[in-house]
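Exercise: predict the structure of this protein bound to iron/sulfur cluster.
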Amino acid sequence: MMNKPQVAIAKCQKIHDYLSVRKAVKESLDLIGGLDSLVSPGDRVLVKPNLIAPYHYTTGATTSPHVIRALCELAKEAGARKVSIAEGSGVGSKTEEVFAVTGLKEISARIGVDLINLKKTKTVYLGIPNGKVFRRLKIPEVFMEADVVVNAPVMKTHDVFPATLGLKNMKGALQEKDKKRFHKWGLAQSIVDLNKLVLPQITVLDGTIGMEGMGPTHGTPVNLGVIISSFDTVAADSVAAAVMGIDPLEIEYVKLASEQGLGCADLSRIEVVGLRIEEVKRPFKRLKLDFASYREKGIEIYEKGACSGCRNTMEAVIAYYMESKGRLGLLKGYTLIFGQNVKIPDEHEGKLVNIGLCTKKFREKGEYVPGCPPHPHDLVAFFEERSRILK
Ligand code: SF4
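Solution:
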């Protein structure tokens, strides 16, 4: 019988205190055998945090520098010859600026580790075994050179998926062009294809300060005070999702990754060590819109069989990018349809906009916004453009 993958949950008492955070990180690692069971003397270790944009860790948008520092120091104590922190921040933000704002520029110099901007480092094309969307991808060479990759994402809700966790965090390894292609060609499967190349040896989820609501950058911080670690990234993501009150299989990339053999998403087949999920569970607030209620505001929305990708994108665009900014008028007079089984309604008053790859077949009948799912920014840009044309 196969052993159950282990996922450790440890509590951090003081989320702003380095020694307290380090204690929790070490405790979670020791519960699954310790970092020294992975790192051998002389190894090169790459720590991959989530540094999406220039936001301080107290916002919950970026990995706590205390967690990153603890991982670097523990890797050195395990005998690592070289330790690097590597990240390529989100599209449109400058990684160097993010390193400075998050305090990592100063910390890395103080503790003697390298900072690598993955947007500027040398890349190689690698073929993807069983890649379903991508046959090959450009990957930074440092991932191939590292003996151990330590993945250190933050627990956050997301505008496309119910949550962004460990598997999704590896997207920081991509060049900007590929990040955009991922949205066009199927984000969830693309993330899984990427992980077939760069699946980290260990994932340490930073739940000291997570983010709920309009993640990954505009949400509300959640002072959760937990660290979740596992050698199985899919299992780590599944346990983290459960702590956030989310069914792991609702997160498409987690579901696909488990189906394609990258790890275990079945909570009944995961051994949780340290604290139990119930002891730290704190449901994260998520956007949940009643699309039908927008009809009285002059916006018709039809959805059938949409994955969380399109649903989350639509909720983020409507509630955050439009409604909360007083711009809902941009959608007025439109009939928006999305989802795998949606049809054009027999009767509709607004101008038809087909949203997402599943509705491409209807593009002759109205306008079409591509993407699987479309990027929220592309949808916003589409309606801004239409409003400019109409003026
Ligand atoms: S376009 Fe279709 S398959 Fe892609 S995320 Fe949307 S509903 Fe799912």
